[in-house]
Design goal:
Layout: H1 3-22, H2 29-46, H3 56-82, E1 91-95, H4 103-112, E2 118-123, E3 129-133, H5 140-155
Antiparallel strand pairs: 1-3, 2-3
Helix pairs in contact: 1-2, 3-5
Amino acid sequence: MSVNSAIAVRATIYLLFWLMISGFGLKDLPVGLVATAAATWASFKLSPPGAGNPRPREILHLAWRFLRQSIAAGTDVARIALSPRMTLRPGFVAYPLHLPEGATRNAFCALSSLMPGTLPTGLDEDGALLVHCLDTSQPVAANLAHEERLFMQAIGHE
């Protein structure tokens, strides 16, 4: 995708977002165009087009899996919390990340922090992601490996 195409795509997305939150009034359009231009400029300063090539189909797959996992994990956390015999085995699991340091890794960590029952807390001395979880007997590292692989495919970073 050329830079001009990337600008057009981002500007369109930001303008559509502006129209969704402000309404479709013509009187608000000049402010929306200024906000769109500022958001587009800022997005290119903060995240210039790179080697990554987002793949819509994989993004939808990741979003669907994330939704299913969130519901399942949230239900499991609620079941554990409401159970009279809470069988918790809290602790930390170290997961060796495959994503390079930077914005991409940070985005993956932010995404994984939204999953109920687990919370990325930082890196250990070997650079592995330390994840606090409610039950260390669960396949937390295997789930993170699968999520990271899907994330890398979705953003075109393989």
